[in-house]
Every structure is written in structure tokens, then in C-alpha cells.
Design brief:
Blueprint: H1 3-6, E1 8-9, H2 20-29, E2 34-38, E3 44-49, H3 65-74, H4 77-80, E4 82-83, H5 96-106, E5 110-115, E6 118-124, H6 125-135, E7 142-150, H7 155-165, E8 169-177, E9 184-192, H8 196-203, E10 210-217
Antiparallel strand pairs: 1-6, 2-3, 3-4, 5-6, 7-9, 7-10, 8-9
């Protein structure tokens, strides 16, 4: 699960001399929130987002309506873009979780994907959310169960073995350390070929397992 597998390839891009009015229209028409600005050979020069297109009112406060129109009409994306030196980018061979970590820690909504300074793609928070739905099997029917167990060797194997012994399958799954409860993990599994009641009956037989949520999904 690498960035190159989930990024948007050949993203829409713009030249630095594009007027900001045109950039706003271009992004709106194509329903995008991030626009890499490139030079020759698609080399990254900067990044425009919907936020960067918001002109600082301080620049316009002393102008009359005609001067404001002229000022806005004369601005290009080069005047408002985040310069390449300040753009946080990522390598196509980075893991998907590294991309998520960077975006969360830096509080940003996208990462241009670069090879030798050339834009080959972009990965956004929407791409990561789409990956999460795939990871948890949201698109397939089955029984989704969330349970909690102590952090000990073999605890996950207990559950998967119990499921396999009944001929059921596991579409997807994930787990995290239980928030505010050291020593425990919360697991999510998407199980196929079992009913909700059948799965609950099997899991209730496993020692120290606490079922938090269980539901059938269509």
C-alpha cells in the first residue's frame, strides 16, 4: 500500500501566469481544492489551494471598488501560491500511512507526489478516506464487528482461528491501541458467510474479549 497506488495520476495543473480569477473558476469547474503550479517539464513551482486564493482584506482596505477590481484582475497564481520551497511533497514509494502521518502532523489537505522535482501525481485527504473504506471492506456485504482485547501475544490469532474453524472468511480488518486504556487494543473485522448472531456467539466464547459493536452491512 504505497502512495503511487492511491495517488491521483496526471493531476490538473496550472502555469504561474494564470490569473487568480481564472484559477478559481478552473478549480470550481473541476471540483478540486489543490492545484499544483508547474513550469517547464511539470517541475513544481508552487501550490494553490482554495485557502490561498482568499486575498488578504488588508491589501484592499484602502482601495475603492475600481482599484479593487484592477488589483484582483492583475493578480496571478504566482502572487498567491505557496512557493515550492515551502510545499510539503512526498515520494511515490512512500507508504500510505506515512502520507497520512505527514498530512495530519502538518495539518494539510494534500501532498504533491514528486520524482526529481517533477509532479507525477497528488494524494489528498479524500484519497486517504477512500483507501480507509477499502481497507475496512465498506463496499462488500458482511458482518462488521468491533471488539476489545488485552494486548497479549496471540490474541488476534484466537479470533481469526475461531472464525476460520467455522468456514467463515475475513474481508478486511484493522486495529488500534484503545484510547485512554493502556494495555488494550480495539479491533475491527469484516466477516463474510456468518450471520450477526452466529458471529456474536463464537466471539463470546473467547476469554477477555469484549464486543463493542456488531452490525450487518449490505
Amino acid at each position: 500500500m504505497l502512495v503511487k497506488d492511491y495517488m491521483s495520476r496526471h493531476p490538473l495543473m496550472a502555469q504561474p501566469n494564470m490569473p487568480i480569477i481564472e484559477a478559481q473558476r478552473y478549480m470550481g469547474e473541476n471540483n478540486i481544492r489543490h492545484l499544483p503550479i508547474v513550469g517547464d517539464g511539470k517541475r513544481l513551482l508552487g501550490l494553490v489551494t482554495r485557502q490561498t486564493l482568499l486575498v488578504d482584506p488588508g491589501r484592499l482596505g484602502s482601495l475603492d471598488v475600481w482599484d479593487i477590481a484592477r488589483t484582483l484582475g492583475g493578480l496571478t497564481v504566482k502572487d498567491v501560491m505557496v512557493k515550492a520551497r515551502d510545499v510539503i511533497a512526498i515520494d511515490p514509494d512512500a507508504t500510505i500511512e506515512e502520507a497520512a502521518r505527514v498530512m495530519v502532523s502538518k495539518k494539510i489537505g494534500c501532498l504533491p507526489v514528486l520524482e526529481d522535482g517533477i509532479v507525477i501525481g497528488i494524494i489528498t485527504e479524500a484519497d486517504l478516506l477512500a483507501h480507509l473504506t477499502d481497507l475496512l471492506g465498506e463496499q462488500v456485504p458482511g458482518v462488521r464487528v468491533t471488539y476489545r482485547m488485552p494486548d497479549r501475544l496471540g490474541s488476534l490469532a484466537q479470533v481469526t482461528t475461531a472464525i476460520a474453524e467455522r468456514g467463515w472468511g475475513i474481508y478486511a480488518g484493522g486495529y488500534v491501541v484503545t484510547p485512554k486504556r493502556p494495555g488494550y487494543w480495539d479491533y475491527v473485522l469484516k466477516v463474510r458467510d456468518a450471520s450477526k448472531d452466529e458471529l456474536v456467539a463464537v466471539l463470546e466464547q473467547i476469554e477477555n474479549l469484549e464486543i463493542l459493536d456488531v452490525r450487518e452491512t449490505k
